[in-house]
Amino acid sequence: MLSFSVSGTYADLYEITMGQTYFLEGRHAETACFDYFFRKIPNNGGYVLFAGLHDLLEALEGLQFTDEDIAYLQELRLHPDYLDFLKSFRFKGTLHAPPEGEVIFPHSPIVRVEGTLLETQLIESLLLNILNFASLVATKASRIRQVAGNRTLSDFGLRRAHGPGAVLAARAAVVGGFNSTSNTYAALKYGIPAAGTMAHSFIESYDAELEAFRAFARSRPDDCIFLVDTYHTLQSGVPNAITVAKELEAQGHKAVGIRLDSGDLAYLAKAARNMLNEAGFPYVKIITSNQLDEFVIRSLLEQQAPIDVFGVGTKLVTGAPDAALDGVYKLAMAAGKARLKLSESKEKTTLPGIKQVLRTLDEEGKFYGADAVILASEGNHADLIRHPVEEERQLYLRDCRQEPLLQKVMENGQRTAAPPALAETAAYAQKRLRQLPEEYKRLENPHLYKVGISPQLWELREQLKAHFHK
Ligand SMILES: Nc1ncnc2c1ncn2[C@@H]1O[C@H](COP(=O)(O)OP(=O)(O)OP(=O)(O)O)[C@@H](O)[C@H]1O
Ligand SMILES: O=P(O)(O)OC[C@H]1O[C@H](OP(=O)(O)OP(=O)(O)O)[C@H](O)[C@@H]1O
Ligand SMILES: O=C(O)c1cccnc1
Questions:
Q1: CATH code for residues 145-317
Q2: What residues does the Nicotinate/nicotinamide phosphoribosyltransferase domain cover (predicted)?
Q3: Bridge-partner residues for 114, per DSSP?
Q4: Whose C-alpha lies nearest to ligand 1, atom 5?
Q5: The domain 3-137+322-469: what is its CATH number?
Q6: What is the pLDDT of residues 321-331, one digit of tens each?
Q7: Which phi and psi (to 5°) does residue 466 adopt?
Q8: 378-390: per-residue pLDDT in tens?
Q9: Distance, CA 337 to ligand 3 centroid (Å)?
């Protein structure tokens, strides 16, 4: 089940009313193909990590209009014959997509949705709602993983996320390389390791910090991470944590860590590490939080801060600073004909027809830096790609291997295979990121990964443009 109840009305109203028109005009069973793609990489990054497919496929398999939905649509004066049709509606379409965790680039189709005109139109916003957000957060998580090395990363974002988006975000964070979440609901739902420490309010509720630490240690002696900055980190929090760590050891237990949540985290982590080591607690970990992101974490590690675990909330789950991935869903084929949307901006003119994407790789298996969007009818090879808008620019794809990225993941409304375990998806993402050369992973001013189109696709678009200009 998705983190929120998804039924047929999880759509923008216009998708439902356009569906009515198709139905009443007898066009609803005509075939259609839509492409999901995005245009701009968030955070001025060099790549996006594809996520959300698992939740999307699950939502599509269960998609139907409940009695309550139908009653509501009746109130909106939708036609009784259409409502009768919607009562037994199930999504029966076919989806092609890369595995979750794939590294993806602008202007390249990521998901190809084929089915009836009505069903492919109806799922637009559902698909965009899930994929855009999950991919945004997975991308942010992967940037954080990149700078954190093998240190532990935990999602702390439930309280700062955009409502129930926190649940999708917790999963997307794992796709991008996070290890755990404080969000118990998401941990249970997706099988993510649950993790947590304690809040300032807990400590404040006792008359003394030491009393609070001791009480927690009594109730969870093997799971103590003491929050040490409520009163004074180095004069009170860390000494009190050491006192209770000693008491725990005397009882055969081990304190797990301390958490720093304010002040100069590098300075405090170094001082706390020295105090813990001198007291005989080299195993007590240092956890930090407080408005962390990839840049703060990079800086802390450059300062040699001895931090073992980073808890990241706001900046992770909101995809800050960009807040959204601009993925769109555009018609490429209907009623057997290739379709396109013209635009004043050449870049926004869509790519018509049923397409495949070829990822090109060098002999070492690294990404070559240029993917090819081709017509599916061309097979699985491209020798030459053209710049998607600039007439004179083209690139020969020499000495490279090519992999078709879009694989059938759903047919007749059912997944073609059981979903991979989340850990497998996360491992796939890391494998693909290792194949992406460093220059595309730079946090600032990354190299531009090229996505070109085949001459045949260029030609098809030209023909359609000429037709509509007439
Ligand atoms: N040594 C450091 N290097 C780089 N960034 C740091 C360092 N220490 C903390 N930060 C980051 O600086 C930002 C602001 O920290 P600042 O010290 O102003 O806040 P604070 O300690 O929460 O303040 P307050 O005590 O009022 O709560 C946070 O994002 C924090 O993670
Ligand atoms: O900064 P973020 O990346 O969003 O990480 C989550 C933050 O949420 C908590 O603070 P909050 O003030 O809500 O509660 P607290 O009193 O328990 O610290 C926690 O202490 C972190 O600072
Ligand atoms: O467990 C924690 O320390 C935690 C959880 C959520 C938000 N901030 C901190």
A1: 3.20.20.70
A2: 153-350
A3: 33, 94
A4: 296
A5: 3.20.140.10
A6: 998 999 999 99
A7: -60, -40
A8: 999 999 999 999 9
A9: 53
